[in-house]
Design a protein that fits this description.
There is one protein chain. The strands form four sheets. Strands 3, 4, 5, 6, 10, 11 and 13 form a seven-stranded mixed β-sheet that branches. A two-stranded antiparallel ribbon has the order 1-2. A two-stranded parallel sheet has the order 7-12. It has 300 residues and is α/β, with parallel strands linked by helices. It has three domains: 69 residues, Winged helix-like DNA-binding domain superfamily/Winged helix DNA-binding domain (Arc Repressor Mutant, subunit A, Orthogonal Bundle); 112 residues, 3-Layer(aba) Sandwich (D-Maltodextrin-Binding Protein, domain 2), CATH 3.40.190; 107 residues, D-Maltodextrin-Binding Protein, domain 2. It comes from Actinocrispum wychmicini.
């Protein structure tokens, strides 16, 4: 059932341009070839996607839904390609960027992609690590700009908020907390063995700070992992509850692989920030990337 990406691009262009011929010309292929690709795509899905008339081509109702999904797939592919290129070129990059894992996975590649569209000659290098090390890299001059998710930033660094985020308590569907009729007490969360990120992670620092502010005790780790993906996978497999960014688990929540558990009297909101050496004004591509992040930051 997996379609090829060229056919998905063709379908999206037909929806945007209202013509198979114009879509084919945009992709540099012949119209008969484009028509065959669309017909093959329709057979593969078992759906009529395009109405073909003398006045042009229009998406069917099913075609509009599939096209929206296709556009999301292509957008995510662009994020993948941009992020991988930034990782590959980080050593010889003109703009050196470091980002904590959540920001790097869900936001930074899109920001870099927008910068590259405006400045295709710019090579951006990306280092992905936890928030504490990002701050060390910025402080030491190893990168030009950093993005962190920790609730505090060292005083010797300048910082700007680029997005808002929220942590969520998540469990697999069969966990006993799912059957609770009332929100979980903050003290119960503090007493529970949790799957957590490593020390230095902004996610862990945010959770520990929230527990201290609620005066309900200290974190009791069941297991520690060095990536959000590893924590998320452990929770899906039933290892235990975790507290993760909604950016990282939104698709799991939407598709029922994980369930969010409400918690009383615990503030799990946080700010995602850009950081750079204190007392220094950002210029050039670093300033351009910060401006893009400030325009495009996602809030939750």
């Amino acid at each position: 059932m997996t379609p090829d990406l060229a056919s998905l691009r063709l379908l999206v262009l037909v929806g945007e341009l209202g013509s198979i011929g114009r879509a084919a010309a945009t992709l540099g292929i012949a119209q008969p070839s484009a028509s065959k690709r669309l017909a093959a795509l329709e057979r593969r899905f078992g759906l009529a996607l395009v109405d073909r008339t003398r006045r042009g081509s229009a998406l069917t109702p099913d075609g509009r839904v599939v096209t929206d999904w296709a556009r999301r797939v292509l957008d995510e592919l662009n994020v993948l390609v941009t992020g991988a290129e930034a990782l590959r070129t980080r050593r010889q990059a003109e703009l050196r960027v470091a980002a904590s894992l959540t920001v790097a996975e869900h936001l930074v590649p899109g920001w870099i992609g927008e910068l590259r569209r405006a400045r295709p000659d710019v090579y951006v290098g990306l280092m992905v690590t936890n928030s504490s090390i990002v701050c060390d890299l910025v402080r030491g001059g190893d990168v030009d700009l950093g993005f962190v998710e920790s609730p505090t930033v060292p005083t010797e660094l300048s910082a700007r908020r680029v997005a808002s985020d929220r942590l969520a308590v998540v469990v697999p569907p069969g966990h006993p907390w799912v059957r609770r009729r009332r929100p979980l007490a903050a003290a119960d969360l503090a007493a529970a063995p949790l799957v957590v990120r490593e020390h230095g992670s902004g996610t862990r620092e945010t959770l520990e700070r929230a527990l201290r502010q609620a005066k309900v005790g200290q974190l009791r780790p069941l297991a520690e992992f060095g990536s959000t993906t590893a924590v998320r996978s452990a929770v899906v497999e039933g290892a235990g509850p975790a507290v993760l960014s909604v950016l990282a688990v939104d698709s799991d929540l939407a598709e029922g692989r994980l369930v969010e558990v409400a918690v009383d009297d615990l503030d799990l909101r946080r700010q995602l920030r850009a950081v750079w050496p204190g007392g220094r004004r950002l210029i050039g591509t670093a300033a351009e990337l910060l401006a893009i992040a400030l325009r495009g930051g996602r809030g939750t």
